[in-house]
Design goal:
By secondary structure, this protein is α/β, with parallel strands linked by helices. It has 2 domains: 153 residues, TPP-binding domain (Rossmann fold), CATH 3.40.50.1220; 77 residues, 2-Layer Sandwich (SIR2/SIRT2 'Small Domain'), CATH 3.30.1600.10. 37% of the residues lie in helices and 18% in strands. The chain has a 6-stranded parallel sheet with strand order 3-2-1-7-8-9, sandwiched between helices. Strands 5-4-6 form a 3-stranded antiparallel sheet. Helix 1 crosses helix 10. The longest helix has 14 residues. The protein is elongated, with a radius of gyration of 19 Å. The two termini are 16 Å apart.
Length: 255
């Protein structure tokens, strides 16, 4: 047994308010590509396609691109299933060890695994939101209307407003509730698990910084295949390797 994992289990087990911050790296073992690494989503499409300005210029074009990506299997979130890391976090929450998960991901896998206290920092691509009345619709039903030819540009069933994926596009603010809860949790937590995130995207990367800067500082445990951009400044314990394997070991030690 890795001594660092044992130490991580001791820190988490002794914590009163342990919180997890997750990024794309926790979901790669579920077959979902991340964004910035070689072979990631941004090597396949222009990131600008996910800007709010470009979406509003031609929403039908965006929806077609999104459906093509899903049908090609390159970015099919609906078919993805949670992996051991997601289930381990859900188990830890169920036992009262982890108080909440703040995720940068938009894949709904934490909820599928059974996590309840999930803060979706960047929204969720498994649902669509009306830009007029804010009503939500399951993405599956919206995509069915597009693929069947009923609507080229999907509209809200309630008010006929324009629908967009309920995820934060470039140029959009972080949802105020998610931002507020994340700020509160960063101040409350005494241990923060940072899993599968490069900590290159702000304001999400501010969460572990705030947790480290407060008094007393939180213990920052980082689980990544490669060290994050901030590991020299904030990380107390760095566990390199598979998130699924490391989280399974932690779950086992804490059970």
């Amino acid at each position: 047994m890795n001594e660092s994992i044992k130490r991580a289990a001791e820190i988490i087990g002794a914590a009163q308010n342990a919180v997890a911050l997750t990024g794309a790296g926790i979901s790669t073992e579920s077959g979902i590509p991340d964004f910035r690494s070689p072979g990631g989503l941004w090597t396949k499409i222009d990131p600008g396609e996910f800007s709010i300005d470009r979406f509003l210029q031609n929403p039908a074009r965006f929806w077609k691109m999104s459906l093509d990506l899903k049908n090609s299997g390159e970015f099919d979130l609906a078919s993805a299933v949670p992996n051991a890391a997601h289930y381990s976090l859900a188990n830890m929450e169920n036992r009262g060890i982890i108080k909440c998960v703040i995720t940068q991901n938009v894949d709904n896998l934490h909820q599928k695994a059974g996590s309840v206290e999930v803060v979706e920092f960047h929204g969720n691509l498994l649902r669509a939101v009306c830009m007029k009345c804010k009503a939500l619709e399951p993405m599956e039903k919206v995509e069915q209307r597009i693929s069947s030819g009923q609507q080229e540009t999907p509209r809200c069933n309630r008010c006929s407003g324009l629908l967009k994926p309920d995820a934060v596009f470039f140029g959009e603010p972080i949802p105020s509730k998610a931002l507020m809860i994340s700020q509160i949790q960063s101040q409350k937590c005494d241990a923060l698990l940072v899993i599968g995130t490069s900590l290159q995207v702000f304001p999400a990367a501010q969460i572990p910084i705030a947790a480290k800067m407060k008094a007393p500082p939180a213990h920052i445990i980082e689980i990544n295949r490669e060290p994050s951009a901030l590991h020299d400044q904030i990380t107390d314990l760095l566990l390199l390797g598979s998130a699924g394997e490391i989280m399974s070991e932690l779950d086992s030690l804490l059970s």
